[in-house]
Every structure is written in structure tokens, then in C-alpha cells.
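TA notes, week 10

Several of you asked for a full example with nothing omitted. So below is the full record: C-alpha cells for the whole chain, then the designed sequence directly under it. When grading your own attempts, check the secondary structure regions first.
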């Protein structure tokens, strides 16, 4: 079952630099780093540095609107930084049916190859 809102995840260790990650972008609110198991030539995760109960998109409250917008806007900035001018995909997996495995909200940025639709 999904853990409670304040359970730490592996992403806290990445934020706190307790385990290494290939960081591609960082500011005071958002951290972006390469996925350890890339599903495309470019596969980056964007996360809020402060989880604030946002284990997944399905737990979003009105107070999370600003950080959710910032995550998407940062995905655009990082896509440009990564040279994904031919396009890319952003994904948020939620809950068991969405194949969410880490309960700290995150946006996947995938590109560098043709992405297919429907994703299956
Ligand atoms: P989810 O399945 O929850 O949408 O995505 C979690 C993602 O985190 C997966 O794509 C997985 O490969 C990635 N991931 C899990 N542990 C680590 C880690 O320790 N470092 C990095 N860079 N990515 C991780």
C-alpha cells in the first residue's frame, strides 16, 4: 500500500546528497536529475525539494498549485537545456495502476527518441 504522507523516500536522500545523483538542474524549490533506469536516451526526474505531503498527484491540494506549475515549467526549461527540440514527453505516474514506485511526487521528462502513443 502507498506509504503515509510524511514517509521518507529515496528522493529525500538525493535531495540531502546522502546518495549521489546526476543533477541536471537545481534551484531553491526544484531538483532535476537523471533517472537511474532510463527509459529513453534522455530520462530526467523533476521533484519538489519540499514534499509537503505531496506523495503523488492524487494527493494534491490547492496549496500545491504553485509547485506543480513550477515542476512543469522547469520540465520545459530542462528539455531545452537537454536539446530536445524535436519534442519530448512528460509523465506523472500515480498509484498502483499508474506504476508509481516512489511516493514523492515527480515528473518524468523523456526524450531523445520517438515516443509512442498509446503508451500501454
Ligand atoms: P515512478 O515509477 O514512481 O513513476 O518513478 C520512479 C523513478 O525513480 C523510476 O523511473 C526509477 O528508475 C527512479 N529511481 C528509483 N530510485 C532511484 C535512485 O536512487 N536514483 C535515481 N536517479 N532514480 C531512481
Amino acid at each position: 500500500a502507498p506509504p503515509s504522507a510524511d514517509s521518507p523516500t529515496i528522493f529525500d536522500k538525493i535531495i540531502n546528497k546522502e546518495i549521489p545523483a546526476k543533477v541536471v538542474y537545481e534551484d531553491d524549490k526544484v531538483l532535476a536529475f537523471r533517472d537511474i533506469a532510463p527509459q529513453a536516451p534522455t530520462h530526467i526526474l523533476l521533484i519538489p525539494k519540499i514534499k509537503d505531503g505531496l506523495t503523488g498527484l492524487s494527493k494534491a491540494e490547492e496549496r500545491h498549485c504553485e509547485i506543480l506549475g513550477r515542476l512543469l515549467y522547469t520540465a520545459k526549461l530542462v528539455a531545452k537545456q537537454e536539446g530536445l527540440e524535436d519534442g519530448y514527453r512528460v509523465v506523472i505516474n500515480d498509484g498502483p495502476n499508474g506504476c508509481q514506485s516512489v511516493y514523492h511526487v515527480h515528473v518524468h521528462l523523456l526524450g531523445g527518441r520517438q515516443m509512442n502513443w498509446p503508451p500501454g
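Residues 10, 21, 33-37, 45, 93, 99-102 surround guanosine-5'-monophosphate (CB under 6 Å). Use that as a sanity check on your answer.
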